[in-house]
Amino acid sequence: MPGKGPSLEDLIGIEHSKLGFFQELRQTIEALKDANTQSAQRRREIAAILDGITDIMMVLTSDLRILSVNHVFRQTFPDVPRPEGMFCHQIFRGEDVPCPGCPASASFAAGDICRETAIFKIGGKNVQFEMVASPINRPDAPDRHILVFKRDVSREKEYQAKFYQAEKMATIGMLATGVAHEVNNPLTAIFGFAEGLRRRLPALKEKVDPRVMEDVEDYVATILRECRRCQDIVTTLLTFSRQKTVSFSAVSLNAVVNDTLKLLRSHLKQRNQAKITVRVDLSENLPMVHGDEHQIKQVMLNLLVNAMDAITGPGRIIITTYQSSKGAVCLSVEDSGCGVPPENVDKLFEPFFTTKRSGKGIGIGLSTCMSIVKKHQGDITLKSTPGQGATFTVSLPVNPEKTT
Protein backbone atom coordinates (compact mmCIF):
# COMPACT_ATOMS: atom_id res chain seq x y z
CA MET A 1 0.00 0.00 0.00
CA PRO A 2 1.18 3.52 -0.76
CA GLY A 3 2.83 5.20 2.25
CA LYS A 4 3.46 1.86 3.90
CA GLY A 5 6.80 1.92 5.87
CA PRO A 6 9.48 -0.81 5.92
CA SER A 7 8.47 -4.05 7.51
CA LEU A 8 9.88 -5.33 10.77
CA GLU A 9 11.96 -7.86 8.93
CA ASP A 10 13.46 -5.07 6.80
CA LEU A 11 14.33 -3.03 9.86
CA ILE A 12 15.93 -6.02 11.55
CA GLY A 13 17.99 -6.67 8.38
CA ILE A 14 19.14 -3.08 8.28
CA GLU A 15 20.20 -3.17 11.94
CA HIS A 16 22.06 -6.43 11.39
CA SER A 17 23.81 -4.86 8.42
CA LYS A 18 24.80 -1.81 10.49
CA LEU A 19 25.98 -4.03 13.32
CA GLY A 20 28.16 -6.03 10.93
CA PHE A 21 29.63 -2.84 9.49
CA PHE A 22 30.47 -1.46 12.92
CA GLN A 23 31.99 -4.78 13.96
CA GLU A 24 34.17 -4.77 10.87
CA LEU A 25 35.06 -1.14 11.51
CA ARG A 26 35.97 -1.92 15.12
CA GLN A 27 38.11 -4.86 13.99
CA THR A 28 39.82 -2.63 11.47
CA ILE A 29 40.47 0.01 14.12
CA GLU A 30 41.84 -2.65 16.49
CA ALA A 31 44.04 -3.99 13.72
CA LEU A 32 45.31 -0.48 13.00
CA LYS A 33 45.97 0.05 16.70
CA ASP A 34 47.92 -3.21 16.85
CA ALA A 35 49.87 -2.28 13.72
CA ASN A 36 50.58 1.16 15.14
CA THR A 37 51.69 -0.40 18.44
CA GLN A 38 53.97 -2.82 16.59
CA SER A 39 55.30 0.05 14.46
CA ALA A 40 55.97 2.18 17.54
CA GLN A 41 57.65 -0.77 19.22
CA ARG A 42 59.70 -1.38 16.09
CA ARG A 43 60.68 2.31 16.03
CA ARG A 44 61.74 2.11 19.68
CA GLU A 45 63.82 -0.98 18.92
CA ILE A 46 65.49 0.77 15.99
CA ALA A 47 66.10 3.87 18.14
CA ALA A 48 67.67 1.70 20.85
CA ILE A 49 69.93 0.06 18.26
CA LEU A 50 70.97 3.45 16.90
CA ASP A 51 71.60 4.78 20.40
CA GLY A 52 73.87 1.80 21.03
CA ILE A 53 76.15 2.77 18.12
CA THR A 54 79.20 4.57 19.48
CA ASP A 55 80.37 5.85 16.10
CA ILE A 56 79.43 9.13 14.47
CA MET A 57 76.69 8.39 11.96
CA MET A 58 75.38 10.64 9.17
CA VAL A 59 73.07 10.34 6.20
CA LEU A 60 74.25 12.54 3.31
CA THR A 61 72.73 13.67 0.04
CA SER A 62 74.57 13.45 -3.27
CA ASP A 63 76.01 16.98 -2.76
CA LEU A 64 77.27 15.98 0.74
CA ARG A 65 74.59 17.82 2.69
CA ILE A 66 73.58 16.28 6.02
CA LEU A 67 70.07 14.82 6.20
CA SER A 68 70.22 13.27 9.65
CA VAL A 69 72.72 12.41 12.40
CA ASN A 70 72.80 10.26 15.51
CA HIS A 71 73.30 11.25 19.15
CA VAL A 72 77.09 10.67 18.99
CA PHE A 73 77.39 13.33 16.30
CA ARG A 74 75.51 15.81 18.49
CA GLN A 75 77.72 14.94 21.48
CA THR A 76 80.85 15.45 19.38
CA PHE A 77 79.65 18.79 17.98
CA PRO A 78 77.58 20.40 20.76
CA ASP A 79 78.12 23.83 19.17
CA VAL A 80 76.23 22.73 16.04
CA PRO A 81 72.61 22.41 17.26
CA ARG A 82 71.10 21.90 13.79
CA PRO A 83 73.57 20.18 11.43
CA GLU A 84 70.79 19.14 9.02
CA GLY A 85 71.22 20.99 5.74
CA MET A 86 74.88 21.83 6.29
CA PHE A 87 77.74 20.34 4.29
CA CYS A 88 79.73 17.75 6.23
CA HIS A 89 83.04 19.33 5.19
CA GLN A 90 81.87 22.64 6.68
CA ILE A 91 81.56 21.01 10.09
CA PHE A 92 84.60 18.72 10.02
CA ARG A 93 87.02 20.95 8.11
CA GLY A 94 85.54 24.42 8.04
CA GLU A 95 86.03 24.28 4.27
CA ASP A 96 83.73 25.14 1.38
CA VAL A 97 84.96 22.27 -0.78
CA PRO A 98 84.87 18.50 -0.14
CA CYS A 99 87.81 16.91 1.67
CA PRO A 100 90.49 15.24 -0.47
CA GLY A 101 89.83 11.51 -0.72
CA CYS A 102 86.30 11.86 0.66
CA PRO A 103 84.86 8.32 1.05
CA ALA A 104 81.28 9.59 0.62
CA SER A 105 82.11 11.07 -2.80
CA ALA A 106 83.93 7.88 -3.75
CA SER A 107 80.95 5.79 -2.63
CA PHE A 108 78.57 7.86 -4.73
CA ALA A 109 80.84 7.49 -7.75
CA ALA A 110 81.45 3.75 -7.34
CA GLY A 111 78.04 2.79 -5.97
CA ASP A 112 79.80 0.60 -3.42
CA ILE A 113 81.17 0.68 0.12
CA CYS A 114 84.29 2.85 0.48
CA ARG A 115 86.69 3.12 3.42
CA GLU A 116 89.21 5.78 4.35
CA THR A 117 91.08 7.16 7.37
CA ALA A 118 91.83 10.80 8.11
CA ILE A 119 92.71 13.16 10.94
CA PHE A 120 90.33 15.98 11.90
CA LYS A 121 90.87 18.72 14.44
CA ILE A 122 87.90 18.58 16.82
CA GLY A 123 87.76 20.57 20.03
CA GLY A 124 91.36 21.68 19.56
CA LYS A 125 92.62 18.09 19.38
CA ASN A 126 93.67 15.95 16.42
CA VAL A 127 91.33 12.96 16.17
CA GLN A 128 91.90 10.11 13.75
CA PHE A 129 88.76 8.57 12.25
CA GLU A 130 88.22 5.38 10.31
CA MET A 131 85.37 6.16 7.90
CA VAL A 132 82.99 3.83 6.08
CA ALA A 133 80.57 5.17 3.44
CA SER A 134 77.79 2.92 2.15
CA PRO A 135 75.07 3.70 -0.44
CA ILE A 136 71.46 3.49 0.78
CA ASN A 137 69.58 1.50 -1.87
CA ARG A 138 65.88 2.51 -1.92
CA PRO A 139 64.18 1.81 -5.27
CA ASP A 140 61.16 3.91 -4.26
CA ALA A 141 63.30 6.98 -3.47
CA PRO A 142 64.28 9.19 -6.41
CA ASP A 143 67.31 10.72 -4.60
CA ARG A 144 70.48 8.84 -3.71
CA HIS A 145 71.75 8.93 -0.15
CA ILE A 146 74.90 7.73 1.59
CA LEU A 147 75.27 6.39 5.13
CA VAL A 148 78.60 7.38 6.71
CA PHE A 149 80.13 5.97 9.90
CA LYS A 150 83.15 7.64 11.54
CA ARG A 151 84.93 5.67 14.26
CA ASP A 152 87.54 7.29 16.51
CA VAL A 153 90.66 5.10 16.25
CA SER A 154 93.14 7.61 17.69
CA ARG A 155 93.94 5.63 20.82
CA GLU A 156 94.12 2.32 18.95
CA LYS A 157 96.57 3.72 16.38
CA GLU A 158 98.58 5.45 19.09
CA TYR A 159 98.98 2.20 21.03
CA GLN A 160 100.02 0.35 17.88
CA ALA A 161 102.61 3.02 17.08
CA LYS A 162 103.92 2.99 20.65
CA PHE A 163 104.29 -0.78 20.50
CA TYR A 164 106.30 -0.71 17.26
CA GLN A 165 108.29 2.30 18.46
CA ALA A 166 109.13 0.52 21.71
CA GLU A 167 110.29 -2.52 19.76
CA LYS A 168 112.39 -0.39 17.45
CA MET A 169 113.95 1.65 20.24
CA ALA A 170 114.67 -1.50 22.25
CA THR A 171 116.53 -2.95 19.26
CA ILE A 172 118.43 0.29 18.73
CA GLY A 173 119.29 0.36 22.42
CA MET A 174 120.77 -3.13 22.28
CA LEU A 175 122.75 -2.27 19.15
CA ALA A 176 123.93 1.05 20.60
CA THR A 177 125.12 -0.64 23.78
CA GLY A 178 127.10 -3.16 21.77
CA VAL A 179 128.52 -0.46 19.49
CA ALA A 180 129.46 1.68 22.50
CA HIS A 181 131.48 -1.14 24.06
CA GLU A 182 133.13 -2.13 20.78
CA VAL A 183 134.01 1.47 19.88
CA ASN A 184 134.97 2.67 23.35
CA ASN A 185 137.58 -0.01 23.89
CA PRO A 186 139.85 0.90 20.91
CA LEU A 187 138.89 4.57 21.30
CA THR A 188 140.17 4.57 24.88
CA ALA A 189 143.47 3.05 23.71
CA ILE A 190 143.85 5.60 20.90
CA PHE A 191 143.02 8.47 23.24
CA GLY A 192 145.45 7.19 25.89
CA PHE A 193 148.38 6.78 23.50
CA ALA A 194 147.66 10.17 21.88
CA GLU A 195 147.63 11.78 25.31
CA GLY A 196 150.95 10.05 26.06
CA LEU A 197 152.44 11.47 22.87
CA ARG A 198 151.20 14.95 23.77
CA ARG A 199 152.97 14.78 27.16
CA ARG A 200 156.27 13.74 25.48
CA LEU A 201 156.21 16.46 22.83
CA PRO A 202 158.09 19.08 24.94
CA ALA A 203 161.05 16.69 25.27
CA LEU A 204 161.25 16.28 21.49
CA LYS A 205 161.16 19.97 20.54
CA GLU A 206 164.95 20.45 20.68
CA LYS A 207 165.69 17.19 18.81
CA VAL A 208 163.23 17.49 15.90
CA ASP A 209 163.00 19.96 13.04
CA PRO A 210 160.57 22.76 14.05
CA ARG A 211 158.45 22.30 10.92
CA VAL A 212 158.12 18.57 11.55
CA MET A 213 157.42 19.26 15.22
CA GLU A 214 154.62 21.66 14.28
CA ASP A 215 153.01 18.98 12.12
CA VAL A 216 153.32 16.35 14.87
CA GLU A 217 151.70 18.67 17.43
CA ASP A 218 148.89 19.39 15.01
CA TYR A 219 148.38 15.66 14.32
CA VAL A 220 148.26 14.79 18.03
CA ALA A 221 145.82 17.64 18.77
CA THR A 222 143.60 16.48 15.90
CA ILE A 223 143.62 12.87 17.15
CA LEU A 224 142.64 13.98 20.67
CA ARG A 225 139.94 16.31 19.36
CA GLU A 226 138.41 13.66 17.11
CA CYS A 227 138.54 11.08 19.93
CA ARG A 228 136.54 13.44 22.13
CA ARG A 229 134.09 13.97 19.29
CA CYS A 230 133.65 10.21 18.88
CA GLN A 231 132.98 9.92 22.59
CA ASP A 232 130.35 12.66 22.34
CA ILE A 233 128.72 10.88 19.38
CA VAL A 234 128.54 7.58 21.24
CA THR A 235 127.11 9.32 24.31
CA THR A 236 124.51 11.13 22.20
CA LEU A 237 123.57 7.90 20.44
CA LEU A 238 123.02 6.21 23.80
CA THR A 239 120.92 9.18 24.92
CA PHE A 240 118.66 8.75 21.91
CA SER A 241 118.27 5.00 22.21
CA ARG A 242 118.33 4.37 25.97
CA GLN A 243 115.07 3.09 27.42
CA LYS A 244 114.41 5.03 30.60
CA THR A 245 111.59 6.47 32.68
CA VAL A 246 110.24 9.73 31.29
CA SER A 247 111.53 12.56 33.44
CA PHE A 248 110.41 16.13 32.86
CA SER A 249 112.88 18.92 33.56
CA ALA A 250 114.08 22.19 32.04
CA VAL A 251 115.14 21.60 28.42
CA SER A 252 116.87 23.97 26.00
CA LEU A 253 115.61 23.64 22.43
CA ASN A 254 118.84 25.19 21.18
CA ALA A 255 120.83 22.42 22.89
CA VAL A 256 118.47 19.83 21.41
CA VAL A 257 119.18 21.21 17.91
CA ASN A 258 122.95 21.22 18.43
CA ASP A 259 123.01 17.67 19.85
CA THR A 260 120.92 16.34 16.97
CA LEU A 261 123.12 18.01 14.37
CA LYS A 262 126.15 16.53 16.09
CA LEU A 263 124.66 13.05 15.79
CA LEU A 264 123.81 13.52 12.10
CA ARG A 265 127.01 15.31 11.13
CA SER A 266 128.40 12.45 9.03
CA HIS A 267 125.05 11.86 7.34
CA LEU A 268 124.84 15.55 6.49
CA LYS A 269 128.33 15.46 4.99
CA GLN A 270 127.30 12.58 2.74
CA ARG A 271 124.20 14.45 1.64
CA ASN A 272 126.20 17.63 1.06
CA GLN A 273 127.68 15.91 -1.97
CA ALA A 274 124.31 16.74 -3.51
CA LYS A 275 124.79 20.38 -2.35
CA ILE A 276 122.28 20.43 0.49
CA THR A 277 122.89 23.44 2.70
CA VAL A 278 121.81 23.51 6.34
CA ARG A 279 121.15 26.88 7.95
CA VAL A 280 120.64 27.18 11.70
CA ASP A 281 118.97 30.26 13.16
CA LEU A 282 118.70 29.86 16.93
CA SER A 283 117.10 32.59 19.00
CA GLU A 284 119.19 33.91 21.85
CA ASN A 285 117.79 34.00 25.41
CA LEU A 286 115.19 31.41 24.44
CA PRO A 287 113.15 30.29 27.48
CA MET A 288 113.51 26.71 28.63
CA VAL A 289 110.63 24.30 28.12
CA HIS A 290 109.43 21.74 30.66
CA GLY A 291 109.78 18.32 29.13
CA ASP A 292 111.76 15.15 28.56
CA GLU A 293 115.01 15.91 26.70
CA HIS A 294 115.27 12.40 25.25
CA GLN A 295 111.80 12.57 23.69
CA ILE A 296 112.22 16.11 22.35
CA LYS A 297 115.51 15.03 20.72
CA GLN A 298 113.63 12.16 19.13
CA VAL A 299 111.16 14.65 17.60
CA MET A 300 114.00 16.81 16.27
CA LEU A 301 115.78 13.76 14.84
CA ASN A 302 112.67 12.56 13.00
CA LEU A 303 111.92 15.99 11.53
CA LEU A 304 115.49 16.51 10.35
CA VAL A 305 115.79 13.04 8.79
CA ASN A 306 112.45 13.53 7.01
CA ALA A 307 113.63 16.89 5.69
CA MET A 308 116.80 15.30 4.26
CA ASP A 309 114.81 12.44 2.73
CA ALA A 310 112.42 14.91 1.05
CA ILE A 311 115.29 16.51 -0.92
CA THR A 312 116.45 14.46 -3.91
CA GLY A 313 118.99 16.94 -5.33
CA PRO A 314 120.44 20.31 -4.39
CA GLY A 315 118.39 22.02 -1.71
CA ARG A 316 118.31 23.65 1.69
CA ILE A 317 117.19 22.95 5.24
CA ILE A 318 116.50 25.81 7.66
CA ILE A 319 116.28 25.07 11.39
CA THR A 320 114.84 27.88 13.50
CA THR A 321 113.99 28.38 17.16
CA TYR A 322 111.97 31.35 18.42
CA GLN A 323 109.29 32.40 20.88
CA SER A 324 105.86 33.02 19.41
CA SER A 325 103.61 35.99 20.15
CA LYS A 326 101.56 33.73 22.42
CA GLY A 327 104.62 32.87 24.51
CA ALA A 328 105.19 29.33 23.22
CA VAL A 329 108.71 28.18 22.40
CA CYS A 330 108.83 27.04 18.78
CA LEU A 331 111.12 24.86 16.70
CA SER A 332 110.67 24.79 12.93
CA VAL A 333 112.35 22.61 10.31
CA GLU A 334 111.92 23.88 6.75
CA ASP A 335 113.07 22.05 3.64
CA SER A 336 112.99 22.75 -0.08
CA GLY A 337 112.02 19.18 -0.98
CA CYS A 338 109.10 17.68 -2.83
CA GLY A 339 106.44 18.93 -0.41
CA VAL A 340 103.33 17.09 0.72
CA PRO A 341 100.35 16.54 -1.65
CA PRO A 342 97.04 17.87 -0.25
CA GLU A 343 95.52 14.37 -0.18
CA ASN A 344 98.31 13.19 2.16
CA VAL A 345 98.30 16.10 4.62
CA ASP A 346 95.58 14.52 6.80
CA LYS A 347 97.28 11.12 6.74
CA LEU A 348 100.81 12.26 7.46
CA PHE A 349 100.56 11.84 11.24
CA GLU A 350 98.73 8.52 11.01
CA PRO A 351 100.69 5.53 12.33
CA PHE A 352 102.10 3.32 9.53
CA PHE A 353 101.35 5.82 6.76
CA THR A 354 104.45 6.52 4.68
CA THR A 355 105.27 7.76 1.19
CA LYS A 356 108.84 6.43 1.38
CA ARG A 357 109.83 3.44 -0.66
CA SER A 358 110.13 0.01 0.93
CA GLY A 359 112.99 -0.24 3.39
CA LYS A 360 113.12 3.49 4.11
CA GLY A 361 110.52 3.59 6.87
CA ILE A 362 107.31 2.04 8.19
CA GLY A 363 105.47 5.29 8.89
CA ILE A 364 105.60 5.70 12.66
CA GLY A 365 108.10 8.57 12.89
CA LEU A 366 105.69 11.49 12.54
CA SER A 367 102.93 9.76 14.51
CA THR A 368 105.44 9.28 17.33
CA CYS A 369 106.36 12.96 17.08
CA MET A 370 102.71 13.90 17.38
CA SER A 371 102.28 11.65 20.42
CA ILE A 372 105.35 13.13 22.14
CA VAL A 373 104.35 16.73 21.43
CA LYS A 374 100.81 16.11 22.72
CA LYS A 375 102.30 14.58 25.89
CA HIS A 376 104.17 17.87 26.36
CA GLN A 377 100.90 19.81 25.89
CA GLY A 378 102.24 21.26 22.67
CA ASP A 379 101.26 21.23 19.02
CA ILE A 380 102.88 20.30 15.73
CA THR A 381 101.73 21.84 12.46
CA LEU A 382 102.61 21.49 8.80
CA LYS A 383 102.67 24.02 5.99
CA SER A 384 103.50 22.67 2.57
CA THR A 385 103.23 23.46 -1.11
CA PRO A 386 103.75 20.49 -3.46
CA GLY A 387 107.06 20.85 -5.25
CA GLN A 388 108.20 23.74 -3.05
CA GLY A 389 108.98 22.07 0.25
CA ALA A 390 107.43 21.77 3.70
CA THR A 391 107.77 23.37 7.12
CA PHE A 392 107.08 21.48 10.34
CA THR A 393 106.66 23.64 13.43
CA VAL A 394 106.67 22.31 16.99
CA SER A 395 105.22 24.61 19.68
CA LEU A 396 105.83 23.83 23.35
CA PRO A 397 104.55 25.75 26.37
CA VAL A 398 107.10 27.39 28.66
CA ASN A 399 105.28 26.82 31.94
CA PRO A 400 102.43 24.35 31.48
CA GLU A 401 100.07 24.14 34.44
CA LYS A 402 100.02 20.38 34.25
CA THR A 403 102.35 17.94 32.55
CA THR A 404 101.73 14.21 32.37
UniProtKB/TrEMBL annotation:
Pfam families: HATPase_c, HisKA. The keyword Phosphoprotein applies. Transmembrane segments: none annotated. InterPro entries: HATPase_C_sf (IPR036890), HATPase_dom (IPR003594), His_kinase_dom (IPR005467), HisK_dim/P_dom (IPR003661), HisK_dim/P_sf (IPR036097), PAS-like_dom_sf (IPR035965), Sig_transdc_His_kin-like_C (IPR004358). Keywords: ATP-binding, Kinase, Nucleotide-binding, Phosphoprotein, Transferase, Two-component regulatory system. The keyword Hydrolase does not apply. Residues 178-400 form the Histidine kinase domain. It catalyses: ATP + protein L-histidine = ADP + protein N-phospho-L-histidine. GO terms for molecular function: ATP binding; phosphorelay sensor kinase activity. Its EC number is 2.7.13.3. CDD domains: HisKA (cd00082). This is histidine kinase. It comes from Solidesulfovibrio magneticus (strain ATCC 700980 / DSM 13731 / RS-1) (Desulfovibrio magneticus).
